[in-house]
Amino acid sequence: MLSKLEKGLTKAQVQYIMGTPSVKDPFNSSKWDYIGYEIIGNELLREVHYSLHFEDEKLSKWIQKLNSDSNEDVIGITEKLSTEKSEK
């Protein structure tokens, strides 16, 4: 599902791909958060958290929280995907 995201998608398109956000800040409509878990069998692997950011109602970037114990984030994945798709 994340591989289908690309810069410039509308909020409706993002919601169709990702589903309803876990959190929509009523004071900041330009950010949606998705929170979930990766599970294999009966084992919880990790919590996943994605923050999607919109500019002018279009997807501009997302930030992936790698795990709850880490301060490391992956930023700009949508820009990378858009570049890769346009090169094909």
From TrEMBL:
GO biological process: Gram-negative-bacterium-type cell outer membrane assembly; protein insertion into membrane
Record keywords, A-Z: Cell outer membrane, Membrane, Signal
Outer membrane protein assembly factor BamE domain: residues covered: 1-63
Record GO terms (molecular function): protein-macromolecule adaptor activity
A GO CC term assigned to this protein in UniProt: Bam protein complex
Entry-linked InterPro entries: BamE, BamE-like, BamE_dom
Pfam families, per the entry: BamE
Alphabetized PANTHER family for the sequence: OUTER MEMBRANE PROTEIN ASSEMBLY FACTOR BAME (PTHR37482:SF1)
Name of the protein this chain belongs to: Outer membrane protein assembly factor BamE
Species assigned in the record: SAR86 cluster bacterium
